[in-house]
Amino acid sequence: MLSRLQIILNNPKDKHLNFNISSLLQGIIMEQISYAFATELHNGSRQPYSHYVEFESDQIIWNIQTLTQTAYEQIIAPMMQESMQSIYIRHKNLELSIQDRILEQCSYDQLRKERYFTDGSRIQTIHFVSPTAFKSQGEYVFYPSVHFLFQSLMMKYDACSDDADLFGREVMEHFEENVKVIRYKLRSYSFQLEGTRIPSFLGEITIKINGPQALVNLADYLLAFGEYSGVGIKCGIGMGAYKLDERKRG
Amino acid sequence: MLSRLQIILNNPKDKHLNFNISSLLQGIIMEQISYAFATELHNGSRQPYSHYVEFESDQIIWNIQTLTQTAYEQIIAPMMQESMQSIYIRHKNLELSIQDRILEQCSYDQLRKERYFTDGSRIQTIHFVSPTAFKSQGEYVFYPSVHFLFQSLMMKYDACSDDADLFGREVMEHFEENVKVIRYKLRSYSFQLEGTRIPSFLGEITIKINGPQALVNLADYLLAFGEYSGVGIKCGIGMGAYKLDERKRG
Predict the structure, then answer these.
(1) Are residues B144 and B71 part of one domain?
(2) Is some CB atom of chain A closer than 8 A to the CB atom of B183?
(3) In total, how many domains does chain B have?
Protein backbone atom coordinates (compact mmCIF):
# COMPACT_ATOMS: atom_id res chain seq x y z
CA MET A 1 0.00 0.00 0.00
CA LEU A 2 1.22 3.49 -0.91
CA SER A 3 -0.03 6.28 1.33
CA ARG A 4 0.30 10.06 1.38
CA LEU A 5 -0.78 12.16 4.32
CA GLN A 6 -0.87 15.90 3.75
CA ILE A 7 -0.80 17.83 6.98
CA ILE A 8 -1.78 21.43 6.43
CA LEU A 9 0.03 23.69 8.91
CA ASN A 10 -0.13 27.42 9.48
CA ASN A 11 2.87 29.29 8.01
CA PRO A 12 4.08 31.96 10.44
CA LYS A 13 5.26 34.69 8.07
CA ASP A 14 7.70 36.26 10.46
CA LYS A 15 9.68 32.99 10.69
CA HIS A 16 10.62 32.78 6.98
CA LEU A 17 10.63 28.98 7.05
CA ASN A 18 12.16 27.11 4.12
CA PHE A 19 13.20 23.59 3.07
CA ASN A 20 15.75 23.51 5.88
CA ILE A 21 13.04 22.73 8.46
CA SER A 22 12.69 19.28 6.83
CA SER A 23 15.23 17.64 9.08
CA LEU A 24 13.44 19.04 12.16
CA LEU A 25 10.17 17.61 10.86
CA GLN A 26 11.88 14.25 10.43
CA GLY A 27 12.56 14.45 14.16
CA ILE A 28 8.78 14.66 14.71
CA ILE A 29 8.28 11.51 12.63
CA MET A 30 10.96 9.69 14.60
CA GLU A 31 9.29 10.61 17.90
CA GLN A 32 6.08 8.85 16.82
CA ILE A 33 7.40 5.48 15.79
CA SER A 34 8.07 2.44 17.97
CA TYR A 35 11.55 1.60 19.20
CA ALA A 36 11.42 -1.69 17.26
CA PHE A 37 10.54 0.04 13.98
CA ALA A 38 13.16 2.76 14.54
CA THR A 39 15.76 0.02 14.98
CA GLU A 40 14.53 -1.72 11.83
CA LEU A 41 14.80 1.55 9.87
CA HIS A 42 18.22 2.22 11.28
CA ASN A 43 19.61 -1.22 10.48
CA GLY A 44 17.79 -1.93 7.22
CA SER A 45 18.79 -0.87 3.75
CA ARG A 46 15.25 0.02 2.78
CA GLN A 47 13.59 3.25 3.69
CA PRO A 48 9.84 2.75 3.41
CA TYR A 49 8.88 6.41 3.71
CA SER A 50 9.64 9.90 2.44
CA HIS A 51 8.44 13.34 3.35
CA TYR A 52 8.71 16.90 2.09
CA VAL A 53 7.31 20.37 2.69
CA GLU A 54 5.65 22.77 0.29
CA PHE A 55 5.23 26.43 1.12
CA GLU A 56 2.22 28.55 0.31
CA SER A 57 1.71 32.12 1.49
CA ASP A 58 -0.16 31.21 4.67
CA GLN A 59 0.21 27.44 4.74
CA ILE A 60 2.85 24.77 4.92
CA ILE A 61 1.85 21.49 3.33
CA TRP A 62 3.77 18.70 4.99
CA ASN A 63 3.60 15.55 2.86
CA ILE A 64 4.37 12.28 4.62
CA GLN A 65 4.49 9.27 2.32
CA THR A 66 4.81 5.56 3.14
CA LEU A 67 5.54 2.66 0.82
CA THR A 68 4.49 -0.29 3.00
CA GLN A 69 1.59 -1.17 5.27
CA THR A 70 3.91 -1.35 8.30
CA ALA A 71 5.32 2.09 7.59
CA TYR A 72 1.78 3.43 7.25
CA GLU A 73 0.84 2.05 10.65
CA GLN A 74 4.07 3.24 12.29
CA ILE A 75 4.44 6.66 10.72
CA ILE A 76 1.17 7.95 9.27
CA ALA A 77 -1.37 6.41 11.67
CA PRO A 78 0.01 8.26 14.76
CA MET A 79 -0.11 11.54 12.81
CA MET A 80 -3.80 10.94 12.09
CA GLN A 81 -4.79 11.07 15.75
CA GLU A 82 -7.20 13.91 16.30
CA SER A 83 -5.67 14.64 19.67
CA MET A 84 -2.60 15.90 17.82
CA GLN A 85 -3.60 19.46 17.01
CA SER A 86 -0.21 21.02 16.43
CA ILE A 87 3.40 20.22 15.62
CA TYR A 88 5.98 21.51 18.06
CA ILE A 89 9.48 22.03 16.73
CA ARG A 90 11.65 22.13 19.81
CA HIS A 91 14.84 23.32 18.09
CA LYS A 92 13.10 26.51 16.96
CA ASN A 93 10.62 26.70 19.89
CA LEU A 94 7.93 26.89 17.24
CA GLU A 95 4.38 25.57 17.35
CA LEU A 96 2.65 25.03 14.01
CA SER A 97 -1.08 24.40 14.28
CA ILE A 98 -2.62 21.66 12.17
CA GLN A 99 -5.36 23.12 10.00
CA ASP A 100 -6.29 20.04 8.04
CA ARG A 101 -5.23 16.49 7.13
CA ILE A 102 -5.74 14.83 3.76
CA LEU A 103 -5.00 11.13 3.30
CA GLU A 104 -4.62 9.49 -0.12
CA GLN A 105 -3.97 5.79 -0.52
CA CYS A 106 -3.30 3.58 -3.49
CA SER A 107 -2.45 -0.11 -3.61
CA TYR A 108 0.39 -1.34 -5.77
CA ASP A 109 -2.22 -3.32 -7.75
CA GLN A 110 -4.22 -0.19 -8.39
CA LEU A 111 -1.12 1.76 -9.45
CA ARG A 112 -0.11 -1.06 -11.78
CA LYS A 113 -3.59 -1.09 -13.30
CA GLU A 114 -3.61 2.67 -13.83
CA ARG A 115 -0.02 3.18 -14.89
CA TYR A 116 1.43 -0.08 -16.16
CA PHE A 117 -1.57 -1.74 -17.81
CA THR A 118 -2.83 1.52 -19.29
CA ASP A 119 -0.85 3.16 -22.07
CA GLY A 120 1.15 6.05 -20.68
CA SER A 121 2.43 9.16 -22.42
CA ARG A 122 5.84 9.22 -24.12
CA ILE A 123 6.34 12.74 -22.79
CA GLN A 124 6.61 13.23 -19.03
CA THR A 125 7.36 16.43 -17.13
CA ILE A 126 8.91 15.92 -13.70
CA HIS A 127 8.79 18.84 -11.23
CA PHE A 128 11.40 18.47 -8.49
CA VAL A 129 9.64 20.17 -5.60
CA SER A 130 12.17 19.62 -2.83
CA PRO A 131 15.98 19.82 -3.07
CA THR A 132 17.17 16.71 -4.88
CA ALA A 133 20.61 15.11 -5.20
CA PHE A 134 22.22 11.82 -6.13
CA LYS A 135 25.43 10.33 -4.88
CA SER A 136 27.91 8.64 -7.16
CA GLN A 137 31.41 7.43 -6.34
CA GLY A 138 31.34 9.29 -3.04
CA GLU A 139 30.42 12.63 -4.60
CA TYR A 140 27.15 14.51 -4.67
CA VAL A 141 25.59 14.84 -8.11
CA PHE A 142 23.36 17.89 -8.20
CA TYR A 143 21.71 17.57 -11.58
CA PRO A 144 19.29 14.94 -12.87
CA SER A 145 20.14 12.45 -15.60
CA VAL A 146 18.21 9.53 -17.03
CA HIS A 147 20.73 7.16 -15.47
CA PHE A 148 20.59 8.53 -11.90
CA LEU A 149 16.83 9.09 -11.99
CA PHE A 150 15.81 5.61 -13.12
CA GLN A 151 18.54 3.79 -11.20
CA SER A 152 17.39 5.41 -7.96
CA LEU A 153 13.70 4.69 -8.63
CA MET A 154 14.40 1.06 -9.53
CA MET A 155 16.36 0.52 -6.33
CA LYS A 156 13.69 2.14 -4.18
CA TYR A 157 10.96 0.11 -5.90
CA ASP A 158 12.75 -3.19 -5.48
CA ALA A 159 13.42 -2.44 -1.81
CA CYS A 160 9.82 -1.64 -0.86
CA SER A 161 7.28 -3.04 -3.32
CA ASP A 162 5.42 -6.37 -3.18
CA ASP A 163 7.36 -7.54 -6.24
CA ALA A 164 10.77 -9.02 -5.63
CA ASP A 165 13.51 -7.56 -7.79
CA LEU A 166 11.46 -6.46 -10.76
CA PHE A 167 14.29 -4.43 -12.17
CA GLY A 168 17.80 -5.26 -13.29
CA ARG A 169 20.67 -4.07 -15.39
CA GLU A 170 18.90 -4.93 -18.63
CA VAL A 171 15.93 -2.68 -17.87
CA MET A 172 18.35 0.09 -16.90
CA GLU A 173 20.03 -0.20 -20.29
CA HIS A 174 16.65 0.05 -22.03
CA PHE A 175 15.89 3.24 -20.13
CA GLU A 176 19.29 4.72 -20.90
CA GLU A 177 18.95 3.95 -24.60
CA ASN A 178 15.40 5.14 -25.00
CA VAL A 179 14.82 8.00 -22.58
CA LYS A 180 16.06 11.51 -23.40
CA VAL A 181 15.76 14.80 -21.55
CA ILE A 182 14.21 17.17 -24.11
CA ARG A 183 13.55 20.28 -21.99
CA TYR A 184 14.65 21.51 -18.60
CA LYS A 185 14.65 24.41 -16.20
CA LEU A 186 16.86 23.71 -13.21
CA ARG A 187 18.77 25.54 -10.54
CA SER A 188 21.16 24.41 -7.88
CA TYR A 189 20.23 24.72 -4.22
CA SER A 190 22.37 24.42 -1.13
CA PHE A 191 20.39 22.25 1.31
CA GLN A 192 21.36 22.77 4.96
CA LEU A 193 21.34 19.60 6.97
CA GLU A 194 22.68 19.33 10.49
CA GLY A 195 25.37 21.93 9.90
CA THR A 196 26.51 20.66 6.51
CA ARG A 197 25.40 21.84 3.11
CA ILE A 198 24.35 19.35 0.47
CA PRO A 199 24.53 20.54 -3.14
CA SER A 200 21.17 19.77 -4.74
CA PHE A 201 18.78 21.01 -7.40
CA LEU A 202 15.20 22.17 -7.90
CA GLY A 203 13.20 22.68 -11.08
CA GLU A 204 11.79 20.57 -13.85
CA ILE A 205 12.74 18.32 -16.72
CA THR A 206 10.69 16.94 -19.58
CA ILE A 207 11.67 13.51 -20.82
CA LYS A 208 10.71 11.66 -23.98
CA ILE A 209 10.50 7.88 -23.90
CA ASN A 210 11.16 6.13 -27.20
CA GLY A 211 11.05 2.39 -27.85
CA PRO A 212 8.20 -0.06 -27.27
CA GLN A 213 5.01 1.02 -25.49
CA ALA A 214 5.73 -1.56 -22.77
CA LEU A 215 8.86 0.43 -21.84
CA VAL A 216 6.82 3.65 -21.80
CA ASN A 217 4.32 2.01 -19.44
CA LEU A 218 7.07 0.66 -17.21
CA ALA A 219 8.63 4.13 -16.99
CA ASP A 220 5.22 5.62 -16.28
CA TYR A 221 4.58 3.12 -13.50
CA LEU A 222 8.00 3.64 -11.97
CA LEU A 223 7.67 7.43 -12.14
CA ALA A 224 4.23 7.24 -10.47
CA PHE A 225 5.75 5.12 -7.69
CA GLY A 226 8.50 7.73 -7.33
CA GLU A 227 5.93 10.39 -6.42
CA TYR A 228 5.56 8.39 -3.18
CA SER A 229 9.17 7.27 -2.67
CA GLY A 230 11.04 10.38 -3.79
CA VAL A 231 14.24 10.03 -5.79
CA GLY A 232 17.92 10.23 -4.94
CA ILE A 233 19.39 10.66 -1.48
CA LYS A 234 17.85 11.58 1.87
CA CYS A 235 14.18 11.32 0.89
CA GLY A 236 13.53 10.55 4.58
CA ILE A 237 14.88 13.99 5.49
CA GLY A 238 12.82 16.00 3.02
CA MET A 239 14.90 15.73 -0.13
CA GLY A 240 14.08 14.27 -3.54
CA ALA A 241 10.33 14.88 -3.84
CA TYR A 242 8.84 15.32 -7.29
CA LYS A 243 5.45 15.61 -8.95
CA LEU A 244 4.52 14.54 -12.44
CA ASP A 245 2.75 16.95 -14.71
CA GLU A 246 -0.67 15.33 -14.90
CA ARG A 247 -1.91 17.75 -17.54
CA LYS A 248 0.47 16.24 -20.05
CA ARG A 249 -0.78 12.68 -19.51
CA GLY A 250 -2.87 10.62 -21.87
CA MET B 1 42.96 42.90 -31.78
CA LEU B 2 39.61 42.04 -30.15
CA SER B 3 36.74 44.39 -30.99
CA ARG B 4 33.13 44.75 -29.95
CA LEU B 5 30.68 47.03 -31.68
CA GLN B 6 27.36 47.56 -29.97
CA ILE B 7 24.73 48.84 -32.33
CA ILE B 8 21.74 50.19 -30.43
CA LEU B 9 18.57 49.66 -32.46
CA ASN B 10 14.98 50.61 -31.75
CA ASN B 11 12.84 47.67 -30.59
CA PRO B 12 9.43 47.77 -32.28
CA LYS B 13 7.20 46.36 -29.54
CA ASP B 14 4.48 45.12 -31.85
CA LYS B 15 6.97 42.79 -33.60
CA HIS B 16 7.87 40.70 -30.53
CA LEU B 17 11.39 40.08 -31.79
CA ASN B 18 13.49 37.40 -30.09
CA PHE B 19 16.76 35.51 -30.50
CA ASN B 20 15.49 34.00 -33.74
CA ILE B 21 16.28 37.24 -35.66
CA SER B 22 19.98 36.46 -35.17
CA SER B 23 20.31 34.52 -38.40
CA LEU B 24 18.68 37.40 -40.31
CA LEU B 25 21.18 39.81 -38.75
CA GLN B 26 23.99 37.50 -39.83
CA GLY B 27 22.70 38.08 -43.36
CA ILE B 28 23.31 41.83 -42.83
CA ILE B 29 26.91 41.11 -41.80
CA MET B 30 27.44 38.92 -44.85
CA GLU B 31 26.18 41.68 -47.15
CA GLN B 32 28.92 44.05 -45.91
CA ILE B 33 31.98 41.91 -46.37
CA SER B 34 34.08 41.46 -49.48
CA TYR B 35 33.69 38.46 -51.74
CA ALA B 36 37.27 37.41 -50.99
CA PHE B 37 36.71 37.50 -47.22
CA ALA B 38 33.38 35.68 -47.54
CA THR B 39 35.17 32.93 -49.47
CA GLU B 40 37.88 32.79 -46.82
CA LEU B 41 35.26 32.45 -44.07
CA HIS B 42 33.41 29.84 -46.04
CA ASN B 43 36.48 27.69 -46.72
CA GLY B 44 38.40 28.25 -43.51
CA SER B 45 38.04 26.40 -40.27
CA ARG B 46 38.35 29.53 -38.18
CA GLN B 47 35.50 31.91 -37.60
CA PRO B 48 37.01 35.24 -36.52
CA TYR B 49 33.75 36.86 -35.41
CA SER B 50 30.65 36.32 -33.34
CA HIS B 51 27.49 38.31 -32.80
CA TYR B 52 24.41 38.26 -30.59
CA VAL B 53 21.38 40.33 -29.67
CA GLU B 54 20.16 41.53 -26.31
CA PHE B 55 16.63 42.80 -25.79
CA GLU B 56 15.62 45.70 -23.62
CA SER B 57 12.13 47.15 -23.44
CA ASP B 58 12.65 49.77 -26.16
CA GLN B 59 16.06 48.80 -27.51
CA ILE B 60 17.82 45.95 -29.19
CA ILE B 61 21.55 45.83 -28.52
CA TRP B 62 23.26 44.10 -31.40
CA ASN B 63 26.78 43.06 -30.41
CA ILE B 64 29.20 42.33 -33.24
CA GLN B 65 32.56 41.00 -32.12
CA THR B 66 35.73 40.33 -34.11
CA LEU B 67 38.85 38.42 -33.10
CA THR B 68 41.31 39.59 -35.75
CA GLN B 69 42.30 42.89 -37.38
CA THR B 70 41.11 41.66 -40.78
CA ALA B 71 37.72 40.67 -39.40
CA TYR B 72 37.46 44.10 -37.77
CA GLU B 73 38.13 45.82 -41.10
CA GLN B 74 35.78 43.56 -43.01
CA ILE B 75 32.90 43.28 -40.60
CA ILE B 76 32.89 46.09 -38.05
CA ALA B 77 34.36 48.97 -40.07
CA PRO B 78 31.52 48.96 -42.66
CA MET B 79 28.97 48.99 -39.82
CA MET B 80 30.64 52.11 -38.41
CA GLN B 81 29.86 54.24 -41.46
CA GLU B 82 27.68 57.13 -40.45
CA SER B 83 25.77 56.90 -43.69
CA MET B 84 24.27 53.65 -42.39
CA GLN B 85 21.41 54.92 -40.27
CA SER B 86 19.25 51.84 -40.11
CA ILE B 87 19.27 48.08 -40.55
CA TYR B 88 16.80 46.67 -43.05
CA ILE B 89 15.74 43.06 -42.54
CA ARG B 90 14.33 42.02 -45.87
CA HIS B 91 12.84 38.72 -44.72
CA LYS B 92 10.59 40.51 -42.27
CA ASN B 93 10.30 43.79 -44.24
CA LEU B 94 11.48 45.48 -41.08
CA GLU B 95 13.57 48.63 -40.70
CA LEU B 96 15.36 49.08 -37.36
CA SER B 97 16.82 52.55 -36.87
CA ILE B 98 20.32 52.85 -35.41
CA GLN B 99 20.18 54.97 -32.26
CA ASP B 100 23.80 54.69 -31.21
CA ARG B 101 27.05 52.83 -31.77
CA ILE B 102 29.59 51.94 -29.08
CA LEU B 103 32.98 50.49 -30.01
CA GLU B 104 35.28 48.75 -27.51
CA GLN B 105 38.67 47.40 -28.46
CA CYS B 106 41.31 45.46 -26.62
CA SER B 107 44.57 44.01 -27.88
CA TYR B 108 45.53 40.46 -27.03
CA ASP B 109 48.55 41.95 -25.17
CA GLN B 110 46.29 44.14 -23.08
CA LEU B 111 43.96 41.24 -22.30
CA ARG B 112 46.93 39.07 -21.30
CA LYS B 113 48.21 41.84 -19.04
CA GLU B 114 44.83 42.32 -17.36
CA ARG B 115 43.73 38.72 -17.14
CA TYR B 116 46.70 36.41 -17.38
CA PHE B 117 49.44 38.40 -15.63
CA THR B 118 47.08 39.67 -12.92
CA ASP B 119 45.74 37.21 -10.36
CA GLY B 120 42.18 36.28 -11.23
CA SER B 121 39.39 35.05 -9.01
CA ARG B 122 38.88 31.36 -8.30
CA ILE B 123 35.14 31.90 -8.54
CA GLN B 124 33.67 32.93 -11.89
CA THR B 125 30.03 33.35 -12.82
CA ILE B 126 29.24 32.92 -16.50
CA HIS B 127 25.93 34.29 -17.82
CA PHE B 128 24.92 32.67 -21.10
CA VAL B 129 23.05 35.52 -22.77
CA SER B 130 22.23 33.94 -26.12
CA PRO B 131 21.13 30.34 -26.79
CA THR B 132 24.19 28.12 -26.42
CA ALA B 133 24.90 24.55 -27.51
CA PHE B 134 27.79 22.20 -28.10
CA LYS B 135 28.06 19.34 -30.53
CA SER B 136 29.58 16.02 -29.59
CA GLN B 137 29.62 12.81 -31.62
CA GLY B 138 27.07 14.23 -34.03
CA GLU B 139 24.58 15.17 -31.32
CA TYR B 140 23.66 18.50 -29.83
CA VAL B 141 24.62 18.93 -26.18
CA PHE B 142 22.33 21.49 -24.59
CA TYR B 143 23.90 21.92 -21.16
CA PRO B 144 27.32 23.32 -20.19
CA SER B 145 30.11 21.25 -18.71
CA VAL B 146 33.68 22.11 -17.84
CA HIS B 147 34.84 19.85 -20.66
CA PHE B 148 32.72 21.34 -23.44
CA LEU B 149 33.18 24.91 -22.22
CA PHE B 150 36.96 24.93 -22.04
CA GLN B 151 37.49 22.68 -25.06
CA SER B 152 35.47 25.04 -27.21
CA LEU B 153 37.24 28.15 -25.88
CA MET B 154 40.69 26.61 -26.39
CA MET B 155 39.90 25.70 -29.98
CA LYS B 156 38.53 29.15 -30.76
CA TYR B 157 41.52 30.81 -29.12
CA ASP B 158 44.05 28.71 -31.00
CA ALA B 159 42.27 29.37 -34.30
CA CYS B 160 42.19 33.16 -33.99
CA SER B 161 44.78 34.52 -31.55
CA ASP B 162 48.31 35.74 -32.25
CA ASP B 163 49.68 32.75 -30.33
CA ALA B 164 50.03 29.53 -32.22
CA ASP B 165 48.51 26.51 -30.46
CA LEU B 166 48.75 27.69 -26.87
CA PHE B 167 46.49 24.93 -25.66
CA GLY B 168 46.65 21.19 -25.80
CA ARG B 169 45.34 18.02 -24.23
CA GLU B 170 47.39 18.50 -21.09
CA VAL B 171 45.89 21.90 -20.32
CA MET B 172 42.43 20.43 -20.95
CA GLU B 173 43.12 17.72 -18.38
CA HIS B 174 44.18 20.37 -15.84
CA PHE B 175 40.93 22.22 -16.39
CA GLU B 176 38.87 19.04 -16.08
CA GLU B 177 40.60 18.06 -12.86
CA ASN B 178 40.49 21.46 -11.20
CA VAL B 179 37.36 23.25 -12.37
CA LYS B 180 33.98 22.42 -10.85
CA VAL B 181 30.52 23.86 -11.41
CA ILE B 182 29.36 24.90 -7.93
CA ARG B 183 26.08 26.71 -8.73
CA TYR B 184 23.79 26.96 -11.72
CA LYS B 185 20.48 28.20 -13.00
CA LEU B 186 19.83 26.97 -16.51
CA ARG B 187 16.95 26.34 -18.87
CA SER B 188 16.74 24.75 -22.25
CA TYR B 189 15.77 26.83 -25.27
CA SER B 190 14.74 25.76 -28.73
CA PHE B 191 16.65 28.01 -31.15
CA GLN B 192 15.01 28.36 -34.56
CA LEU B 193 17.45 28.46 -37.41
CA GLU B 194 16.47 28.29 -41.05
CA GLY B 195 13.53 26.03 -40.39
CA THR B 196 15.27 23.69 -37.97
CA ARG B 197 15.31 23.84 -34.20
CA ILE B 198 18.56 23.58 -32.29
CA PRO B 199 18.30 22.45 -28.65
CA SER B 200 20.28 24.97 -26.60
CA PHE B 201 20.40 26.56 -23.17
CA LEU B 202 20.34 29.95 -21.44
CA GLY B 203 21.18 30.89 -17.85
CA GLU B 204 24.21 30.98 -15.65
CA ILE B 205 26.78 28.79 -13.97
CA THR B 206 29.32 29.57 -11.26
CA ILE B 207 32.58 27.68 -11.45
CA LYS B 208 35.34 27.26 -8.91
CA ILE B 209 38.90 26.84 -10.10
CA ASN B 210 41.20 24.88 -7.80
CA GLY B 211 44.88 24.15 -8.36
CA PRO B 212 47.75 26.57 -8.94
CA GLN B 213 47.10 30.29 -9.41
CA ALA B 214 48.66 30.04 -12.90
CA LEU B 215 45.78 27.77 -13.91
CA VAL B 216 43.27 30.22 -12.42
CA ASN B 217 44.85 33.03 -14.46
CA LEU B 218 44.84 30.94 -17.63
CA ALA B 219 41.15 30.14 -17.12
CA ASP B 220 40.46 33.82 -16.44
CA TYR B 221 42.26 34.87 -19.62
CA LEU B 222 40.50 32.24 -21.71
CA LEU B 223 37.10 33.13 -20.29
CA ALA B 224 37.73 36.84 -20.99
CA PHE B 225 38.64 35.94 -24.59
CA GLY B 226 35.41 33.93 -24.80
CA GLU B 227 33.35 37.06 -24.15
CA TYR B 228 34.49 38.09 -27.66
CA SER B 229 34.49 34.69 -29.38
CA GLY B 230 31.41 33.13 -27.84
CA VAL B 231 31.42 29.45 -26.96
CA GLY B 232 30.08 26.32 -28.60
CA ILE B 233 28.42 26.11 -32.00
CA LYS B 234 27.12 28.77 -34.40
CA CYS B 235 28.53 31.84 -32.64
CA GLY B 236 28.50 33.47 -36.08
CA ILE B 237 24.72 33.09 -36.17
CA GLY B 238 23.98 34.57 -32.78
CA MET B 239 24.48 31.59 -30.49
CA GLY B 240 26.94 31.03 -27.64
CA ALA B 241 27.38 34.54 -26.22
CA TYR B 242 28.22 34.91 -22.55
CA LYS B 243 29.23 37.60 -20.07
CA LEU B 244 31.34 37.18 -16.98
CA ASP B 245 30.09 38.54 -13.69
CA GLU B 246 32.51 41.41 -13.16
CA ARG B 247 31.20 42.15 -9.67
CA LYS B 248 32.61 38.87 -8.43
CA ARG B 249 36.13 39.56 -9.69
CA GLY B 250 39.14 40.32 -7.58
Answers:
(1) no
(2) yes
(3) 2
